[in-house]
Structure of glutaminase:
Amino acid sequence: MAVGVLALQGSFNEHITALRRIGVKGVEIRKPEQLNNVDALIIPGGESTTMAKLADCHNLFPAMREFVSTGKPVWGTCAGLILLADKAVGQKLGGQELIGGLDCTVHRNFFGSQLQSFETVLSVPKLAEKEGGPDSFRGVFIRAPAILEAGPDVEVLADCPVPSDDVRTIVPTDEGKKERVIVAVRQGNLLGTAFHPELTSDSRWHSFFLNMGKETGERSLECMAAPGRY
Ligand code: GLN
């Protein structure tokens, strides 16, 4: 299995290293045609406006949207989560193009500025159920987004308390009243995390993502074997 990692900007090297740790080849993606040779795609963290501008220059948006629609696994971490969402709010300068697919509204800088970056222990029972180990995970949040709304097909994997009143003032009025926000989701072949698992030594999110591919593959084989069942 080869996993493409969008390599225009941000923490793509760290994802490739994390994949190598679990024996999987990560392939740097900079051109649309390179997506034909990979079974899954990771869109890393970084800066979503810059990443979107570079992706546009490389004509990658149509190919990435096509990749999402094939049902192959796609994982967006942080800026990558923003790009995968159907809707992003909290942009000061008009925003950026999105790939979309994930039925979520994401607030781009929900947790504040770079200085308000933090680490916190998240409860992720699904991760323990699927990959073993503790049901906690140390989330690294760097100028992180949060998911404010998620559609009915979106499974919430982790949420997180809004850290302080200080940060809450950044968020527009309604969302400002929230006590907890969603920080990890799955919708079929799509995975989104507001934090950076590739910056920790715990490989379970990468394994979880790869196993999503196996599940999707098995499901499509079952569909072929039993037409009309789905
Ligand atoms: N909030 C950032 C953005 O808008 C993302 C930060 C990150 O990827 N660490 O792009």
Observations:
- The chain has one domain: 2-225.
- The CA atoms of residues 5 and 77 lie 11 Å apart.
